[in-house]
Sequence to fold (83 residues):
Amino acid sequence: WLYLKGREWRATLRRMRVQAAMNPTRPSGGPRADLARWRRIRRDQMHEVNRSELDRIMGKIESSGVGSLSPDERNFLDRFSPD
Fold:
């Protein structure tokens, strides 16, 4: 019985680790702080493809606001933003 409980516990722990790796934490501070951080992204140091994606997302923010971003778009901006 203990063996089975141990396996169950390890499986749960492994699942939690995978979820944590897929959802990295980002600095909190609200939408204004996020937007200020994202505006500091250096476009001139980005690849052309990433630059066009940045322009698309920033345009979406200008037209619809920060709340309209998908989690993938937020993660994209967080990866390139200075901490």
User: Anything to note?
Assistant: Residues 2-80 form one domain. The mean pLDDT is 86. Residues 27 and 73 are 15 Å apart (CA to CA).
